[in-house]
Amino acid sequence: MSWRVDWQASVGLLGTGLKYLAVTMFVPLFVAVVYMEDIWVFALSIVFVTTLGFALERIDTDPDIGPREALVFVSLAWLTAAVVGTIPYLLAGFGTSSTLADPVNALFESMSGFTTTGATVMGQISLEQHSHALLIWRQLTQWLGGMGIIVLMIAILPEVAVNGAQLMASEAPGPELQKLTPKIAETARVLWLIYFAFTLMYIAVMYGLHLAGFAPNMDLYNAVAHGFTTLPTGGFSPQAESIAYFSAAVQWAAIPFLVVAGVNFALFWHVLKGEVDVMLENTEFRAYAGAIAVTTAVLSLLLVRGAAPPLDIGGVTGGVTENTFRQAAFQIASLLNSTGYATSDFAQWGTHAQVFLLFVMFIGGSAGSTGGGVKVVRWLVVFKAIRRELYTTANPDVVEPVRLSGSVVDEDAVRGIASFTLLYILLFGFSAVFISLDTARIGIELTTLEAVSASLATIGNIGPGFGRLGPFGNYLFFSDASKMLMIFLMWVGRLEIVPVLAVFISVFDRNQ
Amino acid sequence: MRVVIVGAGEVGSSVAASLAGDHEVMVIDLDSERVDTLTYSLDVLAVEGDGASVKTLREAGIDDADLLIACTDDDETNIVSCGTAKTISDAFTIARIRNTKFLDTWSQSKGALGIDLMVGTNLLAAQSIVRVIGLPGAEDVDRFADGLIQMAEFRITDETPVTGMSVAEADTFDSLTFAAIIRDDEVVIPSGDTCLQTDDDVVVIGSPGSISDFAQTIEPDVDGVSDVLIVGGNEIGLEVARLLDEKGTPNRLVEPDPERARYLAETLPKTTVLQNDPTDQEFLLREHIGDVDVAIATLDSDERNLLSALLSKRLGAARSIAVVEDGDYSDLFEAVGVDVAVNPREAIAEEITRFTREQHAENVAIIEHDRAEVIEVEVDSGSVLLDRPISQSIRDLPDGVVIGAIARDGTYVIPRGDTVIEKDDHIVVFAAQEIVEETMELI
Predict the structure, then answer these.
(1) Which ipTM score applies to this complex?
(2) Residue B353 within a domain
(3) Per the database record, which ranges form the RCK C-terminal domain (chain B) (predicted)?
């Protein structure tokens, strides 16, 4: 296999992307100015990133992006965004005791942000130790990563739109690209607008609850901060207690938005056009909604029959039954599509409930949503292909295509999905073993559930795991080697492996 | 009437032959040999050329033609021929179409593509097969008056419970008329004491309910069709499977070609598509062909269809239906043991006959390969039947005409001697071939 890539084109385009990433840093800069904290951190970051952007852009002023360059560019763009995203952490942490002052930690946090994983290595998440601006930057990285920085570039940069379809196919979650309009830039814009509208709606609902007196802690800052991380299925919170810090009303109100975040955004576009049927008849949507309903019911039952979950840390709660059902509904909505918010420390629930949640984490959101994981559509295809395999073993003459929403899934796609799922599971398994061994090396024993969840929570872009990695724990204690592996897992998990592998193949395969 | 026929293949030639007697017929074909053959064998004007070109159509006299029938084997040619004729003349245009997609397009807006009547041959053949499947023991089934009235033909065998009975004894149904018995190529109009004999083909006209009750009398052991095997995935096989899917009848379809099988499996979500040699006995046994209610042979050659139909019968299928492209073989197929032979060209002929009648027939069924016809007519002011009881008017009609059923304002009327026929009634009439023209003129 020979694999030639025009690296200059990829890197040149990267420069353009960086210039625009610098623009997004004006958001934390604005917050910094409002609160009069860390202004110089963001001012400096903007100058630095902009300069780097212009410098890289000069490598190729007129980049010509083919399919391979698209794969390499998309991977590098996410890596570069994560690297550049560490600058505010490093600058703000310089000379302090902040755990983010360490480059590996900063990269972990930044990668976790952009990939909407939500796993953290912050020793202490609090507005006393970190500025409002820094925490909003941490939240913002998730919002940018949710719908995708590449999709955003395609939406706003005419020079990228020409080869936008290839770029978008490399980044968009799920097995295939869905064009909503003839022009790819238009499709990207539609998706971002829907995403933006939902975010605004969420902020309005949350701040509305606060103004109405149902959510004492949900001030405007918190409403915006959580708006940045709910729709992208991120899960970062500027509060150490995550969503548990807020009232039951906030938690109930967040559930529908969490569910929405795991739905293919293209379906909302059909709904806007009045084609509600398209959404209701979509097999993946039905399976996703069904999975949420069934797993919520099962988890509620497990919680009722086992030890009831500990009551909330703060805020207003209803009775024990309301609490149990809310915890179940919220955790399912949050973990199934890979958000990873916490309303309760599920690491203290019974083992059976935890094992069940681990299973739920495997599902993932829908293709074309902001959710991570394997994705509902892939599981559907895998299960249908297995069923077909069993059936045709008994009936060797039968010709049976795999169907989704009434249409036939191409055999190449079935094969691709099967190999993806296998690769994903292999990578997950290998990483769990590596993390376990590497952690033992530094003298810390991980439980099986912890090791497995560390691997799954990072490759699936979920965030919290179990035990010490639970919703109120963090990933700080891992060795740098394990953290680097997890940074890699988050990266490949967000880009669904192939684009990242393309980079490696092109590096090692250049001279053949 | 001046009729231009484009295409002198089997369909074109047989249509030309049936029209040549009463009409001025011009036939266009690209093949000079066929043109020569026609010139000497039929009393028609054969023109060599492309039916889709204005020049050739003009040469064939399209300017004065009343009717253009495009029936080459190529759908696109037929469509373009009709469209071309429409731009330069007022002729009524009929196109023969194999692919159902064109039929879908055309039915969006009748007259589209310059075609006044589109005859979907594969669909028509599939429809007649599915009608036959739905009625146990029937050899031919047709619908009239929007489905209010049915016509069916049954074969009387040694095992049939009604064998030896008189018509009066066999007829225990209110809305059913024994229209005719085809015995040794003769058309017999039965009276009450005519006996039903082995090897008779009996033609009944009535309400769908009474016809299916009658079918139950003939084949009492059959209760519903729940397992159909279609052998051969050509366009007819595909359409049959599609129609059965719509009705909710479980069916399997065998196709040897992997790519075609894949296409069929993708197109037919409810049908089980099998890819194998449809004449492989071992395979057929593995698929339990012995338990099959109906096996339908829709392969691409008459010989293979015959083989397949006989094989499935031999392996135990309850009934076998075979498609036969060459109408001459139809009788042979049924003589050697195939239960029903369906000729797709007969369907085209029925449609075309309907339009070439001097007086417009609403619907036509051709019985026993042109021995008789069952015709639906709307009664208007010129009819001898109007405002008279049937017992009187029947005397003015040729012998051998049977008024089988009447549809009035969407309801079924049983024709009795004292029934008075009103204007706008739809009557379904049976007539032997030689008196069809005469009968049509009178009614």
Answers:
(1) 0.75
(2) no
(3) 139-220, 362-443
Both structure tokens of B133: 């499947």
Residue B337 per-residue DSSP state: T
* Statement to judge: residues B272 and B340 lie in one domain: yes
Tell me the CATH number at B258: 3.40.50.720
Choose the final residue of a domain: B81, B115, B149: B115
Residue with tokens 């069993």: A390
Question: Residue A297: helix, strand or coil by DSSP?
Answer: helix
Task: Give the DSSP letter string of A256-272.
Answer: HHHHHHTS-HHHHHHHH
Same domain, B258 and B297: yes
Mutate which of A397, A405, A408 to test chain B, going by most B C-beta atoms within 10 A?
Answer: A397
- Cα angle at A173 between A168 and A179, to 5 degrees? 45
Cβ of residue B266 closer than 8 Å to a chain A Cβ: yes
Domains identified in chain B, total number? 3
Question: Domain of B237?
Answer: 228-346
β-pairing, B228-231 vs B294-297, is parallel
Distance between B265 CA and the closest CA of chain A, angstroms:
6
H helices present in B109-226, as ranges: 121-134, 167-170, 208-218
β-pair partners for B27: B5, B46
> Closest Cα of chain B to A385: distance in Å?
15
Domain assignment of residue B410, yes or no: no
Contact assignment for B275 to A399 by CB distance below 8 Å: yes
Query: Is B362 a member of any domain?
Result: no
Per-residue pLDDT of chain B (443 residues; tens, 9 = 90+): 889 999 988 788 888 887 887 788 999 999 988 888 888 888 888 888 998 999 999 988 898 898 999 999 899 999 999 999 999 998 889 999 888 888 888 988 878 888 988 888 888 889 889 988 888 878 888 888 888 898 998 888 888 888 888 888 887 888 888 888 888 878 888 888 888 888 888 899 988 888 888 888 887 766 677 889 999 999 999 999 999 999 888 899 999 999 999 999 999 999 999 999 988 888 989 888 888 899 999 998 999 999 999 999 999 888 899 999 887 788 888 888 899 898 887 777 777 777 776 556 778 888 877 788 888 888 888 888 888 888 888 888 888 888 888 989 888 888 888 888 888 888 998 988 888 888 888 87
On whether any CB of chain A is under 8 Å from the CB of B272, the answer is yes
- What residues form DSSP beta bridges with B376? B363, B428
- Tokens 């609850």 sit on residue: A209
The verdict on a CB contact (< 8 Å) between A400 and B269 is no
Report CB contact under 8 Å: B262, A397. Answer: no
CB spacing of A399 vs B287 below 8 angstroms: no
Q: Which of A399, A410, A414 to mutate to test the interface with B (most CBs of B within 10 A)?
A: A399
Q: Which residue has the tokens 């399912």?
A: A332
Instruction: List, edge to edge, every strand of the sheet that includes B402-408.
Output: B363-367, B372-378, B426-432, B402-408, B411-413
**Domain boundary, last residue among B291, B325, B346:** B346
Strand order of the β-sheet with B251-255 is A398-399, B272-275, B251-255, B228-231, B294-297, B319-323, B340-342
* pTM of the shown model: 0.82
Collect all residues from A whose CB is shorter than 8 A from any CB in B: 395, 397-401, 403, 406, 408
Cα B308 from chain centroid (whole Å): 22
CA distance A130 to A124: 9
